[in-house]
């Protein structure tokens, strides 16, 4: 039986420069609030010609994507034993909390 995936806490979208931002977050188990390590996180742009970014959460559940262009993205998180979750985010030049 799959547990509810994660409480996905994005620390926000932090502006590095006008044309490049950073997306960071921490993955935690919804049942016991423990970090979820080795989860796969994908960031897909709504622009089909843009690359797909992929990261793996660290031992503390943290992940980061750097130098991301502004625009609409789908953030997808998957890990063994959990349901896959996707959410849409909008990367801007200002901080955004999701």
**Element order: H for helix, E for strand:** EEEEEEE
Principal-axis shape = elongated
Number of strands: 7
The side-by-side strand order for the widest beta sheet comes to 4-3-6-7
What's the Cα radius of gyration? 13 Å
Polypeptide structure, described:
The protein is an all-beta fold and 98 residues long. The chain has no helices and seven strands. It has strands at residues 6-15, 21-29, 40-45, 53-56, 62-68, 71-78, 85-91. Strands 4-3-6-7 form a four-stranded antiparallel beta sheet, with no helix packed on it. A three-stranded antiparallel beta sheet has the order 1-2-5, with no helix packed on it. Strand 6 and strand 7 form a beta hairpin. The chain is elongated. The N and C termini lie far apart (28 Å). 20% of the residues are buried. Mean pLDDT is 79; it is low at 4-18.
Detail the topology: elements first, then pairings.
Layout lengths: L5 E10 L5 E9 L10 E6 L7 E4 L5 E7 L2 E8 L6 E7 L7
Summarize the structure.
The chain is mostly beta strands and 98 residues long. The chain has no helices and 7 strands.
Q: Can you give keywords for this protein?
A:
98 residues, mainly beta, four-stranded antiparallel β-sheet, three-stranded antiparallel β-sheet, 7 strands, 52% strand
